Amino acid sequence: KKMKQITIIGNLGKDAETSSKGGAMNFTVGVSDDVDKTKTDWFNCYYDNMSLISYMRKGKYVAISGRFYTKEGSDGKTRLNINVDSVKFINTGTGVKKKSEVADESEAPF
User: Fold this and answer.
1) Taking the complete model, does pTM exceed 0.70, yes or no?
2) Cβ-contact 9, 63 below 8 angstroms
3) Where are the alpha helices (DSSP H) in 37-90?
4) Of the residues 16, 63, 65, 110, which has the fewest C-beta atoms closer than 10 A?
5) DSSP state of 54
6) What's the pLDDT tens digit per position in 52-107?
7) Ramachandran bin of 93, using left for φ above 0, alpha for ψ from -120 to 50, beta for the remaining angles
8) CA–CA distance, 74 with 33 (Å, rounded to integer)
9) Residues 79-100 as b or e (16 or more Cβ within 10 Å = b)
10) CB count, 10 Å around CB of 52?
11) Exposed/middle/buried for 25, CB within 10 Å: 0-12, 13-18, 19+?
């Protein structure tokens, strides 16, 4: 599998969770299409730094940079994954986008 560097800006789909290996966290980020607001791409993110886990809450608007790769799931769907190098919180005034602007993770394909 090839890895490429990527930066995305979007909303956390749910609170970050400790990974099964411990010492790291998993979370999802939804990125809405600028043209078609009904389309959201979901990224599975893995970050080996636990210092931010208490701030990683559903709906937070973040910029994520890291190494991007795809992986086919057991259902045949392609998963978008990022091994995270950095997380930046984007201030939207309240720290959370309006509910109407936050993507619903139930739309996520995983």
Assistant:
1) yes
2) yes
3) none
4) 110
5) G
6) 999 999 999 999 999 999 999 899 989 999 999 999 999 866 544 444 444 444 44
7) left
8) 26
9) ebbbebeebeeeeeeeebbeee
10) 15
11) buried
